[in-house]
Design a protein that fits this description.
InterPro entries: Bact_solute-bind_prot3, Solute-binding_3/MltF_N. This is Glutamate/aspartate transport system substrate-binding protein. Pfam families: SBP_bac_3. Keywords: Signal, Transport. Belongs to the bacterial solute-binding protein 3 family. Strand 2 and strand 3 form a beta hairpin. By secondary structure, the protein is an alpha/beta fold. Helix 9 packs across helix 11. The chain folds into two domains: 167 residues, D-Maltodextrin-Binding Protein, domain 2, CATH 3.40.190.10; 96 residues, D-Maltodextrin-Binding Protein, domain 2. Helix content is 43%, strand content 22%. It is globular, with a radius of gyration of 22 Å. The chain is built from eleven helices and 14 strands. Strands 1, 5, 6, 7, 8 and 14 form a six-stranded mixed beta sheet that branches.
Length: 297
């Protein structure tokens, strides 16, 4: 009696084993690494609100973190196993090297995708569109970058904002006293302590810091955009399998409305701090997401 089902069962188990071995042989790059280790390492930021930052419990949370979780789920589904998430903090200065060196597999932050960086790393489709603006204390005589002649401006090390302000200072002879801090929280602290006259970074990060610190009453975000910054999730360059999965997953997230729902959660509803950034989706990002969700015929 038993032989009637033992042989089919053994054959089925053998087929599954061979399929698993075949899959292990064809997977490459980050996908192969994830299959072998059973885990994906996500790089996160500690104060890039609301994209990637630490909750009151010290857990990484945010818009980019949620997108990265969806990518990890998609990777697991692709290889038929659940993947663990390992967390690795990165800074503006360390994030690119962390991806290149393999220290992190996906960088979930507020990183601008540009041609210079694309020489070293790969980027997902655009997750957000931002640009450099200035935060000042209310009452300060600063309404645009032209009012910054000879003043102290703090930027965060390793950001496109640092480069933008240096170029602006040189082009318009502003003679800025540029202060470079370790992270956005430190930059904000320098402004709060009157050690800087303005803090220059992406406008959405400025609004996020104000929401997290409940400090809208004492500060203002001023001036025109001083740069154009489309954000993306970073991963290693030359990883064709992961690139295909990332693009496919973004297409599904856009088509099913998940990206829009995530945006509303982090930009229009209250953050865990109890304050909302209240920043509607820009027409540029809305168009990008709409296009992303259209399947090719």
């Amino acid at each position: 009696m038993q032989s009637h089902w033992i042989k089919p069962l053994a054959a089925g188990l053998l087929a599954c084993l061979l399929a698993g071995l075949a899959q292990a042989q064809v997977l490459t790059g980050t996908m192969k690494k994830a299959l072998d280790t059973g885990a994906v390492t996500l790089g996160y930021r500690e104060s890039s609100i609301p994209f990637s930052y630490l909750s009151a419990r010290g857990e990484p949370i945010g818009y980019a973190v949620d997108i990265c979780r969806a990518l990890v789920d998609a990777m697991g589904e692709e290889m038929g196993r659940e993947l663990l998430i390992k967390w690795q903090p990165v800074t503006s200065e360390s994030r690119i090297n962390a991806v290149v060196s393999g220290q992190v597999d996906l960088e979930c932050g507020s990183t601008t995708s540009n041609l210079e960086r694309q020489k070293q790393v790969a980027f997902s489709p655009t997750t957000f569109v931002s640009g450099t603006k200035l935060m000042v204390k209310k009452g300060a005589m600063v309404r645009s970058f032209r009012d910054l002649v000879g003043k102290r401006v703090v930027v965060t090390a390793g950001t496109t904002n640092e480069k933008a302000m240096r170029e602006l200072s040189e082009k318009f002879k502003l003679n800025l006293d540029l202060l470079v801090s370790h992270d956005h929280a430190e930059s904000f602290a320098l402004l709060a302590a009157d050690k800087a006259d303005a803090f220059a970074t992406d406008d959405v990060l400025l609004y996020g810091l104000l929401a997290q610190n409940k400090g809208q009453a004492g500060y203002a975000v001023v001036g025109d955009f001083l740069s154009y910054d489309p954000y993306g999730i970073m991963y290693r360059k030359g990883d064709a399998q992961l690139a295909a999965l990332v693009n496919k997953t973004f297409g599904s997230l856009a088509e099913e409305g998940d990206l829009e729902r995530l945006y509303k959660r982090w930009f229009l509803r209250r953050l865990p701090s109890g304050v909302s950034i209240n920043l509607p989706m820009s027409p540029q990002l809305a168009t990008i997401i709409q296009t992303m969700g259209v399947k090719p015929e």
